[in-house]
């Protein structure tokens, strides 16, 4: 059986990492049973991040590489029924979400108040007093460095605000009145769109991006529909 190495549930979600939730949805879509191995240490993954899976003696990291492994090993086509253009659109949306939307949400969580206070208490509140006063500072500094290197951290608050709003509107516009992101049935796109939308809509973190997402009734209904289907 596949072992999925993931974080413990947090923020009203099965996992605080949308990348871990993405793999959970992919495995459920594929009908593959798995054993969850819960840890707070991302170093358990082969690339120093989570999620990771152990399958057939192999340890595989990164949600997209895990998707490729599932497709190749188990003969799964997560985009079954989609034509070449639809597959390209799904791929482009996934890259937008993972390479930009995600980082805006990271900035919202770690570098703004009161969101940072929630992060600090949830992730570091159980540490011994001396460690608890130091580790969050170092972790926040590391996240700030990641954001600066990725580029999102170099933008102004107003620029990040506009980017997040535009991303939510793009998701809602493409979703339209479809039950799932690409049509009548879930596809690989939903394994990415849902976790990242839920990370904005269903968590306690306030942000302009969340305000915009909550205005999009179809996007809110979509996150509820996906949660009921895969995490009832």
List the helices and strands and how they pair.
Blueprint: E1 2-6, H1 18-30, E2 34-38, E3 52-55, E4 58-61, H2 63-74, H3 84-110, H4 115-124, H5 129-150, H6 157-175, H7 188-201, H8 208-215, H9 217-230
Parallel strand pairs: 1-2
Antiparallel strand pairs: 1-3, 3-4
Helix pairs in contact: 1-2, 1-7, 3-5, 3-6, 3-7, 6-8, 7-9
What would you say this structure looks like, in words?
- The protein is α+β, with helices and mostly antiparallel strands.
- It folds into two domains: 2-74, Glutaredoxin, CATH 3.40.30; 84-230, Glutathione S-transferase Yfyf (Class Pi), Chain A, domain 2, CATH 1.20.1050.10.
- Helix content is 60%, strand content 8%.
- It is built from nine helices and four strands, in the order βαβββαααααααα.
- The protein has helices spanning 18-30, 63-74, 84-110, 115-124, 129-150, 157-175, 188-201, 208-215, 217-230; strands at residues 2-6, 34-38, 52-55, 58-61.
- A four-stranded mixed sheet has the order 2-1-3-4, covered by helices on one side.
- The radius of gyration is 18 Å and the shape is globular.
- The mean pLDDT is 97.
């Amino acid at each position: 059986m596949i072992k999925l190495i993931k974080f413990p549930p947090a923020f009203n979600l099965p996992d605080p990492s949308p990348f871990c939730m993405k793999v959970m949805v992919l495995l459920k879509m594929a009908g593959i049973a798995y054993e969850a191995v819960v840890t707070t240490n991302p170093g358990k993954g082969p690339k120093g991040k989570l999620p990771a899976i152990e399958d057939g003696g192999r340890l595989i990291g990164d949600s997209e590489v895990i998707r490729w492994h599932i497709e190749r090993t188990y003969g799964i086509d997560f985009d079954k029924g989609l034509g070449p253009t639809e597959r390209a659109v799904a791929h482009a949306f996934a890259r937008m979400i993972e390479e930009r939307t995600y980082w805006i949400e990271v900035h919202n969580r770690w570098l703004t108040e009161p969101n940072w206070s929630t992060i600090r208490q949830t992730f570091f509140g159980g540490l011994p007093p001396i460690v608890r006063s130091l580790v969050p500072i170092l972790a926040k500094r590391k996240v700030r460095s990641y954001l600066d290197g990725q580029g999102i951290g170099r933008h102004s608050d107003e620029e990040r605000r506009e980017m997040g709003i535009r991303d939510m509107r793009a998701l809602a516009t493409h979703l339209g009145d479809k039950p799932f992101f690409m049509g009548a049935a879930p596809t690989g796109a939903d394994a990415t769109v849902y976790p990242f939308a839920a990370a904005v809509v269903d968590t306690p973190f306030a942000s302009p991006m969340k305000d915009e997402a909550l205005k999009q009734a179809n996007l809110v209904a979509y996150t509820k529909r996906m949660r009921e289907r895969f995490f009832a």
